[in-house]
Amino acid sequence: xxxxxxxxxxxxxxxxxxxxxxxxxxxxxxxxxxxxxxxxxxxxxxxxxxxxxxxxxxxxxxxxxxxxxxxxxxxxxxxxxxxxxxxxxxxxxxxxxxxxxxxxxxxxxxxxxxxxxxxxxxxxxxxxxxxxxxxxxxxxxxxxxxxxxxxxx
Length: 153
What we know:
single chain; mainly alpha; 6 helices; 71% helix; membrane; DoxX-like_oxidoreductase; Methylamine_util_MauE; transmembrane helix; transmembrane
């Protein structure tokens, strides 16, 4: 008779974080795949990159987010994928912070482009709080990746 291995609270947290962050990255990436022009406009609005670089980034960000989410979902290179995600989140937070400091009224572009947000602008504090929460969860995955059901942890 074999008993099922019980899952500790930390293992449960690790599983929820891994699969939750996989969903976040997959959803964010999918929403950007067919919106290159809108994403280019959202990136340009931050005033950091030239129009040409904004176009390149709009083309790359969605597929890269999708790929990162799939890596987390499948359990491929969990720590490495999470480390890259953490760097990306910090870069996003820097971009959002500089836009807030400059008083820009723009759409975040975080989960695709929402034309309704352009006139009102994003809620900077909530957007940064959300991204900081994602960063903490991502750091948890680096520290304690959930390896069960992972193809190559």
